[in-house]
Amino acid sequence: MNWRGSLPLFRGGRSRLVPLGLLLLAALLLGYLDDTPLASLRNAQFDHYQRLMPRQRTNEPAIVVAIDSAGIEKYGPWPWPRTLLAQLVERLHAAGAKSIGLDLLLVEPDQYSREMLTKRLPDLPASSRDLLPDPDRTLATALAGAPTVLAVSGIVRPLPGARFPNKPLPDFRIAPAAESSMTRYASSLTSLPLLARAAHGEGVINAAPDRLTSPRDRGVLRRVPSVAVIDFVPLLSLPLEMARQSLGQNAVVAAESGAQGMERIRIGDHSLPVQPNGEILLYFGRPSSHYYLSAADVLAGNFLPDTFPGRFVFIGITTTGLQDRVITPLGDNLPGVDIHVQALESLLSGEALQRPVWMPRLELAVLVLSGLLLIFVIPSLQPRYAALVFLTGIGATVGGGYLAFRGGLYLFDGASVALLLSPIFIALLSNTLIAADRRRQQAETDLQASREAAARVAGELDAARRIQMGLLPDPGRAFIGETRFELAALLEPARAVGGDYYDCFALDERRLCLAIGDVSGKGLPASLFMAVSKTLTGALTRRNRDLGQALREVESELNRENPEFLFVTAFVAVLDADSGDLDYVCAGHDAPLLLRAGRIGRLDTQANSGPPLCALGDYPYGAAHTRLQAGDILCLFTDGASEASNGDAFYGSERLAATLAATAGEQSLAARLEALRDDIRRFEAGTQAHDDLTLLLLKFSGR
Amino acid sequence: MQLTSRPHPGATVLVAAERIDQASAGEFLAALQAELKQHDPAAAPVVIDFAGVDYISSVGLRALMVIAREIKAGKGKIGIAALQPLVREVFGIARFDLVIPCFDSVEDAIAKLST
């Protein structure tokens, strides 16, 4: 059994193995795409979704109070005295801020705290020291008096001065199985315990930009943690902790999780899709400066009364040289504090990008199914349709990605799938083109061969035609000097060779033999039978004085070997050129026309005619007799003349007779023959002749 | 060319129609031979109804001759009935009525061939 032929997979032979191998490679590559340079393409694709369809920012629930250059100019360099910060917090609280988040790490005590001054001035008397104000305590008081959240920065390895957070999440509900997948930090940097204890909460501010996978990648920030574990204690991110605070102490924080880890995070009624490790794929909106306010203006009271009530406030540094800046997928270069605003807005509107754990499996399925489809369909298509199918598939895959984003903020990587399908398509198309080229070359070879064969056959047929026509006597040259009678004959085969024949020869000084025959069928088989019939008729007529006996012997000889069951109609006559006596015998042939004194008639063959030679095989043919008169013209013809057709009707023996009578004006017998032939051909009006045309004219003049 | 068979208690009646010429003679012969495989010509005479045949060429006559020989070899009888004038003329010229008997009507053919 031919296994290659039996399995459709291998019908294309090795031509399908290469694309299948490429598909396997593509599937492997897709599984580890994030470790390859193709990750840049994937991220670029996802970023493009956001650029085309950024998050609409309808309201501005948060405001940034920026420690900017104006503030630095007015209140001196950073770090500002804690008393100034306390003043800011108090001012914001008084203005109606819903929650105040400090995107600052106040790790060291204030420069003018008793502790620092004692270090710097060891000689300061204790009494004087106790009189000094304590700025940290002032800030702690302010923090305690307002809904405030401080920042915590998770660190992987403990550093000198690392501290653990003071205000962990009171209650975080998560399935134990999913807990292990959460983002973890061994330790953290936090504000002074004094401050941290005073604030209402603490939130993580880590937001590491993506790894640089290519030199051109600028470290775009695409994801931030929603919740992280610091030394076994869960902590929300700064903006999410602020949202939780605003909902009151009863707001439940819970994670929805699956087998791979977290799927969504819930804070009260708010909910966001997250990655298994708890990271939010941020859906960015276009940046705006509307919600930025200088801390200097806030401290000076330069703001409208409706600026703060009901809004979340982030205090962050934006001045050049101190701030951290991030690059977003939209291509914007923003202060780090803006990320908190975006995350908070995302939570409030419930919008974040989704790339669930099943999405890579879906991409793999699309890749494999599309690849298999290409592998089975492309080889049977013409190259242009193959390209059409491929481009349609690519369009559907990439377009599907945009639709999935538009419909549900799903991140489907159509571009990578399309890119990985390309080598498969190219390999398939190459096979198709190679096969097409091979076919074309084969076709050319075949055409050349068939041309050569046709030329050979034509040459052989041409030779056969020359031989066949050579068998026929030329009456014009055979009887030069003969005055008792005149002869003219023609034979025009419908094909290269034909099955008609005529003959005319002198048996002796007085007797002339005439013969005409028509083999059933046409072409080469008929022509061979014709040659045998003519030769036999000639030979046996010469041998026998009795025409009937001659024909019976001809039939007997022909019948001896006739596997094709061909038969031949024939008319044979012997004329006594001196007396005009005519003996004739007819085997199923048309009765010859007789033109006598301008009147047309037919030779009477009815009484003696038998069936065609070889139709019965043993018919007792007998001869009839008549006598020609001087001036008589005898016309022998085959059905090529009587059944010549113009597509609608036959020429007919009546019309042949009338035309023969009408040619009386012609100079010679040969000219009358030409006139007859021309009239028949005119009647056919260019339609292909169906049968061989044979005409033989005898004019008897007598002595 | 068309060839159909018509049920008849005493004979195998085949109905031929249209032209039997160079183009259709081979098909005509094959159809006749197929019919004769189903109906044993030795058991009942075969009559070909030629009423619908407009034209027959010498190649068509050859097909009839081949069939006639086959049937006669099998001790059966065959006849042709109801020939149109033009076709009858062809049969007359070629004296093919000597090869296959011709009759005026199918019933006439059956009556005479059954004796």
Descriptive notes:
- The complex is a heterodimer of chains A (703) and B (115).
- Chain A is of the alpha/beta class and 703 residues long.
- Chain A is built from 22 helices and 28 strands.
- Chain A folds into three domains: 19-55 and 354-466, no CATH class; 61-122 and 132-168 and 185-210 and 218-247 and 277-349, no CATH class; 472-700, PPM-type phosphatase domain (Phosphatase 2c, domain 1).
- In chain A, strand 20 and strand 21 (511-519) form a beta hairpin.
- The longest helix of chain A has 58 residues, at 414-471.
- Residues 1-12 and 212-216 of chain A have low confidence and may be disordered.
- Chain B is α/β, with parallel strands linked by helices and 115 residues long.
- Chain B is 42% helix and 27% strand.
- Chain B contains four helices and five strands, in the order E-E-H-E-H-E-H-E-H.
- In chain B, helix 1 packs parallel to helix 2.
Estimate the strand proportion of chain A: 15-25%
In the sheet with the most strands of chain B, the strands line up as 1-2-3-4-5
Tally of separate helices of chain A: 22
Low-pLDDT windows of residues of chain B: none
How widely separated are the two ends of chain B?
31 Å
CATH class of chain B: Alpha Beta
What CATH architecture label of chain B applies? 2-Layer Sandwich
How many independent structural domains of chain A? 3
Could you tell me how far the N terminus lies from the C terminus of chain A, measured between alpha carbons in angstroms? 87 Å
Number of domain units of chain B: 1
Mean pLDDT of chain B: 88
Q: Greatest chain-chain interface?
A: A-B, 24 and 16 residues
Structural class of chain A: alpha/beta
SS field, number of helical segments of chain B: 4
| CATH homology superfamily name of chain B | STAS domain
Tell me the quaternary state: heterodimer
Order of helices and strands of chain B: EEHEHEHEH
Uncertain stretches of chain A: 1-12, 212-216
Q: Would you tell me which CATH topology of chain B applies?
A: Transcription Regulator spoIIAA
Report the CATH topology name of the largest domain in chain A: Phosphatase 2c, domain 1
In helices, the fraction of residues of chain A equals 40-55%
